[in-house]
Amino acid sequence: MMNSSRLALKRGTCQSLRATTKHQSAPYSSARFTQPPRRRGGKLLGFAAVFGIAGAGAYYYPRLMAGDNPDEKARPKVELEFEQPRQRAASAEEYRDLLSSQHVQIKQSLEHPGVYAWGSNAGKVIDPDADDKYIKRPRRIAYFDDKLLRDLKLTAGFGAAVTENGDLVQWGAGFSQADPTPCLTLRGKDLAKIEVSADRIMALSRSGRVYSVPASRNDVEGGVDERKNCWSLWSTSGKAAVNFRDVTPSGLGWGEHVTDVRSGLEHALILTSKGRVFAAASSVASYPSKGQMGIPGLSWETRPAGPYDQPQEIKELSGFQITHIAAGDYHSAVLDKTGRIFAFGDNTFGQLGFESDGVPVSYAPNMVAVSQLYAKSGLVATVTSIAAGGVNTYFTVDAEAPKTQDSGSAAPSKRMPRTTSDLWATGQGTYGTLGTGRWTHVSTAPTKVKALSGLFEFDEGKNAMRPIRLKGLQVGTTHCAAVMDNVTKTSASSKSSSANETNWGSDVLFWGGNEHYQLGTGKRTNLNAPAYIGPLDGGDADAAKGRKGEMHRLCLTPKQTARLGEDGKGRKATLEQKVECGRYVTGVYSAV
């Protein structure tokens, strides 16, 4: 009886499910065979309604929510500030001045050549009339206004310069406490360049003679009366009464002459046209004793008979054709014609480019392993220049890639040069002098200055890419300046066809110690990577042209022949701007 009731219940349930399924599937089954008419108008109205609602929500939502935020009314409204219109130019040249800061800088360097300096003024070198211990921004040295120089050297204690005629000018408290203003001292020698040690000036004449001049009038043997003016340094016959010494190397061959001189604090290197290198003591305060002379066993006790500062040939370099020399405070470096670097002297901070192996002095020249720096790259490295100062050494390298089959497939304008130019540094970096972005205490090997390496630019004249090399590198005691050999232009003038043509010069970057404001940034922060500084006039010319508050960078005028003075109405001369980094002082001067 129970089984029959369960069977009846199952049958009833199945019939109910069939009826429900049949009732629900009727519309879908009819839709398979009968297609309803399309109603596109309804869809369009639906989409329009959706977009309308969304737009209304986006419009009214901020206004509805604004009432819920009590701080909304307290928020200041944004005020738009528009750039002030530039001054209207009365001529094409004035338009160029308004257009480019570098055009103005080059124009001013030709109209008013002279010397700018900044850094330590403790020795009255930058401004003899000022009591400021530091000069934070570039300042003109009034004595050299509208004058051209052959060379300039600056220290915190004294300054020295070679005039356009080859005469020597000295100044600063280290020269004369009573009268630190610039004064002519040695003339008639046709000097070409000078170097400074701790207390003397090494001068090279155009004829190849080398002279050693005291930095202080009090250090002259037989001294000069400090109470007399600078003209007392001259005898009635017109010849110099300054007690200088001729330290030209003896025994030079036929046609051999001195081509370059470099000096540290105690020693000097002398290079001849035959590639020979001589070393000499350049200070009366102390005799070189840290191997910087490159002569093993040489000391005050073992020096040869004769004057203490007589030049001695570095025999260890015999057979090498030396082309460049460099000197730091207590170390030396030379470069031969094949691109090999030899370094010797103090190596306390790794400034020689190799590890000291427990001995912080190298008394004999040792070769720097430059090829190992490119061993994994496959590039062929050739050293092109060297520089040294303080406790650092620098060298530039042309790294050339091997030729490939696809090297000539690209268009000339898109073809990358096979040669790149790199800058390497070694030594102490606690002041940022290495320029690598790090504060390294001691270098175990040279480190690449990436900010000044592997740079390229497009040369419109040649329609090709070219590497940007260093035009010059100046190394002071703790800071450096690099002048770039970038493309420059100085031909834009009143005769140019387009007013949009402007002049621009060589870029210059500074880095390293800034404890005496010698970087020219206006601040006292050291920089461990190259950086630009502002124009020499502090931006006054830019402000006059409507560019007040804008940041512009310093550029140096490249070598050119032009007429000096206002609007080019002065004499004709060939000149360029150069930078000088000394002991805690920096300068820019107009050089011939």
From TrEMBL:
RCC repeats: 275-338, 339-399, 506-559
BP terms from Gene Ontology: mitochondrial respiratory chain complex III assembly
The keyword Transmembrane helix is annotated on this UniProt entry: yes
PROSITE patterns in alphabetical order: RCC1_2, RCC1_3
Entry GO CC: mitochondrial inner membrane
UniProt keyword list: Membrane, Transmembrane, Transmembrane helix
SUPFAM superfamilies: RCC1/BLIP-II (SSF50985)
Pfam families registered for this protein in UniProt: RCC1_2
Record field: transmembrane: 44-61
Domain of life: Eukaryota
Region (Disordered): 403-422
Signal sequence region: none
PANTHER family the record matches: PROTEIN FMP25, MITOCHONDRIAL
Protein name according to UniProt: Mitochondrial protein Fmp25
Origin species: Cordyceps militaris (strain CM01)
